[in-house]
Specification:
With about 425 residues, the protein is α/β, with parallel strands linked by helices. The protein contains 13 helices and 15 strands. The protein has an eight-stranded mixed β-sheet with strand order 3-2-1-4-5-6-7-8, sandwiched between helices. Strands 10-9-13-14-15 form a five-stranded parallel β-sheet. Helix 13 links the parallel strand 13 and strand 14. Helix 7 crosses helix 9, helix 7 runs parallel beside helix 10 and helix 10 crosses helix 11. It is globular and about 70 Å long.
Length: about 425
């Protein structure tokens, strides 16, 4: 079935790169986002993503095939609608689908026959069958005949050099016709399409990918504490184990798990398992381990500056985003670590080339410059995110004490003023 025009709902870290890819492949793309600030910045040629430059935003508009706005009326103009909205956790740790519901409510008044609706947001198996399909039917559409429904998990890896079109695209539809339509759409932009048998199989694929990382990172964080007690460098051990040419995949410890997927997706799976009267003990234990890491970091910082107490001490954080080389602080463990250090009376400042300010416990903290005086004033320089290109040797040279949670200073470990996680 030929298609003419694509609507992308949600222009965040998933939607905007996806829109760009389809524009580059010659498609007419209508981007919709209810955040008026994002739309205004795009119209000004400004980027709000670390992987996007202002010039790249301007080039999108210069093609004449990229249109953005806050109104869902553009849904009338396209044949394919792709939903890329956030799916966070609610206050009880369960799925928060308010953004998907909101997108669907915005879409339905303008939906017409023969359109394809694809959900890319990470979610639990059954979301399309249990939420999207009934909403479409309540609007008078027969899914698989009047309109088509598919799921394709986003696999974007911000801050890396992976080209979106090179990442294999998993696709599963409500029916064979739905799957075929979605496959045709994504084949126009991606090099490899991986077809699975159902919506639920496609939905679970993303959760499996991130649950694997979630569990393995938690294992490293557990082993980290043992290695520290036994005066063993877990980083050295991981490097040694990585020389095995088969059967071992390296995962690394850290201050906790953050971002839009890994701390959230496994808990969506856990919620669904409980609904089915099943337990997922690996995920439950992993969640506990990773939730404990910020407190463990704060405790180690306090131990490192002994006999001085945290009360009145100066702690300089380097890197507060959840991941290197991105500007995203969602679920970043740095936020909890700052809060814990402040609760103990520490004077906390931070430097991050991607972040100007943070809001911690309702208070705004502005970033500081990475200057010699600021580094020397700190009782402890705490490296939480190892952004590429930062002067780690210079930081080590001018710091009284460095607490490195990312092994970023390993080349200068003999300096004597570095403590490793």
């Amino acid at each position: 079935m030929p298609f003419y025009g694509i609507g992308v709902i949600g222009l965040g870290y998933v939607g905007l790169p996806l829109a760009r890819l389809f524009v580059q492949k010659g498609q007419e793309v209508h981007g919709i986002d209810v955040d008026e600030r994002k739309i205004a910045r795009l119209h000004k040629g400004e980027s709000y993503l670390s992987d996007f430059t202002d010039e790249e935003v301007s080039q999108l508009f210069k093609t004449g095939h990229f249109h953005v706005g806050t109104s869902y009326e553009a849904v009338r103009e396209v044949d394919v609608i792709i939903i890329c909205v956030p799916t966070p956790l609610d206050e009880h740790g369960g799925p928060d689908l308010q953004y998907i519901r909101g997108a669907m409510q915005g879409i339905l008044p303008y939906l017409h026959k023969d359109q394809l609706l694809v959900l890319e947001s990470s979610t639990f198996p059954g979301t399309c069958d249990e939420l999207l399909k009934p909403m479409l039917e309540s609007a008078g559409f027969e899914v698989g005949r009047d309109v088509f429904l598919a799921y394709s998990p986003e696999r974007i890896d911000p801050g890396t050099k992976w080209q979106l079109e090179d990442i294999p695209k998993v696709v599963g539809g409500y029916s064979a016709a739905c799957t075929a339509y979605a496959k045709q759409v994504y084949e126009s932009a991606f090099h490899q399409i991986v077809v699975v048998s159902s919506l639920r199989a496609a939905e679970m694929t993303k959760l499996l990918e991130n649950s694997q990382r979630f569990v393995n990172i938690s294992l490293m964080n557990s082993l980290l504490k043992l290695a520290h007690r036994m005066d063993i460098s877990l980083w050295e051990v991981i490097d040694a184990a990585s020389t095995k040419p088969f059967g071992f995949t390296p995962y690394y410890p850290g201050a906790g798990i953050g971002g839009h997927c890994i701390p959230v997706d496994p808990l969506y799976l856990l919620w669904k398992a409980k609904e089915q009267q099943l337990s997922l003990p690996f995920i439950e234990l992993s969640s506990q381990v990773n939730n404990e890491m910020p407190a463990y970091i704060a405790e180690r910082v306090e131990q490192s500056i002994h006999p001085k107490s945290l009360g009145g001490s100066r702690i300089l954080l380097i890197g507060v985003t959840y991941k290197k080389d991105v500007n995203d602080v969602r679920e970043s463990p740095a936020l909890k670590i700052i809060s814990l250090l402040q609760q103990k009376g520490a004077d906390v400042s931070f430097f991050d080339p991607y972040v100007d300010k943070l809001v911690i416990d309702g208070r705004t903290i502005h970033g500081t410059a990475l200057t010699e005086s600021n580094v020397k004033l700190a009782d402890c320089t705490l490296i939480l995110t190892d952004h590429t290109g930062l002067p780690y040797e210079w930081v080590t040279d001018h710091s009284t004490l460095v607490f490195d949670t990312r092994n970023a200073t390993s080349a200068w470990a003999d300096r004597g003023n570095i403590i490793y996680l």
